Amino acid sequence: IAGLSQQERAMLPQQLDSSDASYRQRIQAVYQGHPHAGSGNFERFLEVQLTWDEGMAERVASYLKAHPERNMVVLAGSGHLMYGNGIPHRVARRLPIVSRILLPADKLALNPGVADFVLYPAPVELPHAGLMGVLLDDGDQGVRISKVLPKSAAGQAGIAQGDLIQRLNSARINSVAELRIVMLDLSPGDRVQLEVVRKQMVWGKEVLQFDFALGGE
């Protein structure tokens, strides 16, 4: 925090309570397993985690104060919720509400008070994702194909390094994130229509259309 500008500090939570000894001990245990644990920067590490938890708590409390008729579900990592001394107690300090902590049992030490409910979901195997087989970069001119992987679906279709992706299945693509969203439900073997702009040494730019099946199995 000491290195932040006044403008950046104005965006921080109004309250940063570091008085909870159990919270400090828990964060210190996490820090000991961190690759930079020997650098002597634990206080900075604690400050970052504290700012994160206080910031999320402040946003939760602000929303519930403005919408008292509503309930809220907070999705956060287990470390921000366990034992209540991350987000939950900091919300309660700002707003007297009743909350319940639900955590997955995976890699969780079942100590008293760690959560109100512990979930034991059945293992689920996700389906294979459909892949073009390219590496991508976000650039000023759009999404650029920085590399086409050998024997990939995109390579076999004729897509080349340097091509700029314009559309996928008629959806306009402006970023890698948008491309991933369009491909989210696509599976290996699904056919896609990809529109790219390719720069030519002599003729300038050329718009190309490709229709091919995704790989990934």
Task: Supply database-style keywords.
217 residues, Pdz3 Domain, two-stranded parallel sheet, 8 strands, 21% strand
Question: Element order, helices and strands?
Answer: HHHHEEEEHEEHEE
Unreliable parts: none
The strand count comes to 8
Mean pLDDT over all positions? 91
Quickly count the helices: 6
Work out the strand percent.
15-25%
- Give the CA-CA distance, first to last residue: 47 Å
Question: Which of globular, elongated, flat, extended, rod-shaped describes the shape?
Answer: elongated
Radius of gyration, in Å, reads 24 Å
Instruction: State the share of residues found in helices, binned by percent.
Output: 25-40%
The major pleated sheet works out as: 6 strands, antiparallel
Helix/strand/pairing class, anyone? alpha+beta
Count of discrete structural domains = 2
Task: Provide an overview of this structure.
This protein has 217 residues and is α+β, with helices and mostly antiparallel strands. It folds into 2 domains: 6-119, no CATH class; 134-213, Pdz3 Domain (Roll), CATH 2.30.42. It has 6 helices and 8 strands. It has helices spanning 6-9, 21-32, 42-66, 88-94, 153-157, 176-182, and strands at 102-104, 117-119, 134-139, 142-148, 164-168, 171-172, 191-200, 204-213. The strands form 2 sheets. Strands 3, 4, 5, 6, 7 and 8 form a 6-stranded antiparallel sheet that branches. A hairpin with a 2-residue loop joins strand 3 (134-139) and strand 4 (142-148). Helix 2 (21-32) crosses helix 3 (42-66) and helix 3 crosses helix 4. The radius of gyration is 24 Å and the shape is elongated. The relative contact order is 0.09.
